[in-house]
């Protein structure tokens, strides 16, 4: 939901202004100052690729139970019932695009998942500059492992309380690479997550994302967009052939201001999903409604998923926005 580079939470109005800003940032890099609140490097990591989650306003840390939850809570991988794969296309503002490909494989002890996220944009050409157009892209590769505490406790011979034994835990490690003009930065990070069932249909989710050292271009580093997520979800079926899922998340970025995410999902006959969400953010461009739909088809032991999300990027309140769209295909077999 954001644009790719550090400082991406600044409002975007016209591409020439954006290109000039990036060119100025490159020129000023040797004299850069330490990072302050509201700034981070590899800020594309804040855009967690999941069309289902995006349609629900990003409220997913407790509800996520499929492969797309990899970037919200690695513990969700323990919930997968079979091998799964995803492909996502995200059309962002200013012709920025993000693609994601992921695969997960359950084993008798735990589930392993691997996800690759690439974000790129057209070359930025500053008419006032004499050098070549600036090329910028970002890459993140995530490997995660998750399992239920019950399985881990039994395998280690540990005796845990019943309410803890039902919990799922997960850990992910990331390789990060960012290219900005002629400069390349490399980094690594860790994700930690847990999901705890509190009652029938009620889940608590907690995750710590993007924990790692600053990412450094040339010789100056910016902190990664480390984030703590806490969420509560509720699933219930008040109407025949309808299952409702609701989720509310508290998003606490260490380098930015707190956000709230709210989402509602209605599965009709386990085939069609209608979704709506709301993001409550201190910055108007990230504050507003989200929408989406999903479809699921079970055929000869294969489950096909198609998810679509509309994520408006607001410039000046609800009266001025640009539509961002996410498409995601999934297969469980």
Brief description of this entry?
The chain has 333 residues and is mainly beta.
Indicate the topology.
Layout: H1 15-27, H2 51-55, E1 84-91, E2 97-106, E3 111-120, E4 136-148, H3 149-156, H4 162-165, E5 168-180, E6 183-199, E7 202-211, E8 215-217, E9 220-222, E10 227-239, E11 242-253, E12 259-268, E13 272-280, E14 288-299, E15 302-314, E16 321-332
Describe the structure.
By secondary structure, this protein is mainly beta. Helices cover 9% and strands 50% of the residues. It contains 4 helices and 16 strands. The strands form 2 sheets. It has a 14-stranded antiparallel β-barrel. The protein is globular, with a radius of gyration of 20 Å.
Radius of gyration: 20 Å
Structural class call reads mainly beta
Residue share in helix: under 10%
Estimate what percentage of residues fall within beta strands: over 45%
Q: Could you please say which CATH topology applies here?
A: Porin
User: How many domains comprise the coordinates?
Assistant: 1
- Count of helices? 4
- The helix/strand series, from N terminus to C terminus, equals HHEEEEHHEEEEEEEEEEEE
Q: Quick one: overall form? A: globular
State the fourth-level CATH superfamily: monomeric porin ompg
Main beta sheet: strand number and arrangement?
14 strands, antiparallel, barrel
Q: Which residues form runs of ≥5 with pLDDT under 50?
A: 1-38
Average predicted confidence as pLDDT: 83
Architecture in CATH?
A: Beta Barrel
């Amino acid at each position: 939901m954001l644009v790719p580079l550090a400082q991406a939470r600044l409002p975007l109005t016209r591409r020439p202004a954006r290109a000039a800003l990036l060119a100025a940032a490159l020129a000023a890099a040797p004299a850069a100052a330490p990072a302050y609140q509201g700034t981070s490097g590899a800020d594309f990591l804040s855009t967690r690729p999941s069309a289902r989650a995006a349609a629900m306003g990003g409220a997913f840390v407790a509800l996520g139970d499929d492969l797309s939850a990899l970037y919200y809570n690695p513990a969700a991988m323990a919930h997968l019932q079979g091998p799964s794969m995803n492909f996502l296309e995200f059309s962002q503002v200013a012709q920025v695009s993000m693609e994601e490909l992921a695969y997960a494989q359950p084993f008798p002890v735990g589930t392993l998942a691997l996800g690759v996220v690439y974000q790129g944009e057209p070359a930025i050409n500053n008419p006032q500059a004499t050098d070549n157009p600036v090329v910028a892209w970002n890459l993140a590769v995530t490997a995660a492992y998750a399992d239920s505490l019950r399985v881990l406790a039994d395998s280690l011979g540990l005796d845990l309380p019943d309410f803890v034994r039902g919990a799922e835990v997960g850990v992910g490690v990331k390789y990060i690479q960012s290219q900005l003009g002629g400069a390349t930065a490399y980094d690594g990070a860790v994700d930690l997550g847990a999901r705890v069932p509190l009652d029938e249909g009620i889940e608590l989710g907690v995750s710590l994302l993007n924990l790692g050292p600053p990412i450094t271009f040339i010789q100056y580093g910016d902190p990664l967009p480390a984030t703590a997520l806490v969420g509560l979800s509720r699933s219930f079926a008040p109407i025949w052939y309808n299952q409702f899922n609701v989720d509310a998340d508290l998003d606490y970025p260490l380098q930015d201001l707190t956000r709230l995410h709210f989402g509602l999902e209605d599965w009709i006959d386990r085939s069609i999903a209608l979704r709506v969400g709301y993001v409550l953010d201190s910055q108007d461009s990230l504050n507003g409604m989200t929408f989406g739909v999903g479809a699921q088809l079970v055929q000869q032991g294969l489950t096909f998923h198609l998810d679509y999300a509309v994520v408006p990027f607001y410039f000046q309140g609800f009266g001025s926005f640009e539509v961002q769209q996410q498409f995601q295909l999934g297969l469980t077999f």
